[in-house]
Amino acid sequence: MFAVDVFDAVADPVRRRIVALLGTGPRTAGALAAAFPEISRPAVSRHLRVLREAGLITAEQAGRERHYQVDHRPLQEIERWLSTVRGQVWEQRLDALETEVHRTRRAHAAEEEPPMDSRSAG
Description:
Elements: H1 6-9, H2 13-22, E1 27-28, H3 29-34, H4 41-53, E2 57-62, E3 65-70, H5 75-112
Antiparallel strand pairs: 1-3, 2-3
């Protein structure tokens, strides 16, 4: 569907930060580049291209500027994956809890049973 996998696109911390920034509203390429003084404008442009190719952001030409905004639809793929992983984790935790409940019940039952003594057996 898209040229770049959404997971690959968000693997980079700069690209995750760009998506987060755009989550607050559209921004120009210049405004986004200003948020990353530690990297060059061409590097920011390359990150924007990867995000566009993954479908995570869209660009709209407005005069001489491009306005970027986030598209949340591709993030649904990540959300589905996370819900699967979360589900597996909760299943494991609930299984462990069930095991612990059974152990505790057995331990309490063993404490309540009177000890078998040779004098009372006969």
